[in-house]
Amino acid sequence: MEPFWDGTRLYALSDRTVEGQERLWTPIAFDEAQGRWEPALLPPAGGEIGLPAWVFGQRSCVPLEGGGLLARGLYHGVAKLLRYEPESGWHVLAFEGTPENVPFPLEDGSGRVAWLDAPADQPPAVALGGFEGPTDRFRLAWQVPEGVTKEDIATPETLQIDVDDDGPSPLYALFYPPAHGAHCLPAEETPPLVVIVHGGPTGQARTDLSFKVQWWTSRGFAVLDVNYRGSTGFGRAYREALDGQWGVRDVCDCCAAVRYLIAQGRVDPARCVIRGSSAGGLTVLSALAQSDLFVAGTSLYGVTDLRGLVADTHRFEARYTDRLIAPWPEGEAVYRARSPLSWPEKITAPVLFLHGGADQVVPLSQAEALVAQLAGEQQLHIYPHEGHGFRAPDVIVDSLQRELAFYQQVFEG
């Protein structure tokens, strides 16, 4: 993926099998010989250079003069800037910025680069600088409210958790303790925990500043953002560990990460909740059915019927579940067994469903069908004009306030 020219040579990113090397997305070159383009392997970079192809315009590697390359690599899910020189190979740069994509060299001969900078404690911005880091950040995506300081913002701690099964180990996650600034609610010694399950499921929990995290950490909650096996940024073996295991291994990983925090005494075991969007919604419902760790959960435009998803989803993901669940239609029995709609009686904890009425990826009918069969304290709220992912500011505000009130009600009960 991500092919590019340096003027004389063609490059692309690949995680092809190379004997003796870990399978990571990494740049490879192509040389023309006798009318054919043959790959010429570069030395391994040691990190994963590449992102899942969810959006247009992503770039993880660009050419430099003299046959060099500049790349954004992920080491255990943490972004670093890398430089490749034909004579000396790859080098990790002591770069002070946090690039969302690879920095682009400017064409003014200055030797500077420009990138989108996305640190954990500042708003994302366009940045300019050299290979050491930014000299200027401008055009901030948004402004921090007046009076808010870094003490009001929680920053992540990267967790590596050993797991004892037939999959790759360790498991990775990001843990955010409650923030303690003047604008935050006082945090308890052992705070409640919100577990976030990212979508995709071939996605990644990232370290850049996120409102969906800070909303909770400023209100006395700890947050656990899990890079369950199947996530990107950790190599092909880690990503493919979810093949045929969606709804199983992701659930086990979220539970293992929660048990790890409980064993360390860092969160209140009686007040753990779980939330997830899209594919993460399926994980939330499966976790509530398979574990007693969570006293409540929230499914945001989440999957409840895998067979219905195959029939109704958009063409971009038309065969996605063949790898994650089983070939369709031969594996229909597996789809039925993994679908929350098949076992509503197992979901006994309160669940909040938030869904857009115009969702064409996971239709509203998925949430409605499950809610109709659930007993107990279940809530469904529909935002009529929202699609797959909430965009309108008033909807985002309402959904977070509604979810917070839901958990507070459960805790009081």
UniProtKB/TrEMBL annotation:
Classification via Pfam families: Peptidase_S9 (PF00326)
Top-level taxonomic group: Bacteria
Peptidase S9 prolyl oligopeptidase catalytic domain boundaries: 209-412
SUPFAM superfamilies, alphabetized: alpha/beta-Hydrolases
Protein name, as recorded: Peptidase S9
Organism for this UniProt entry: Saccharibacter floricola DSM 15669
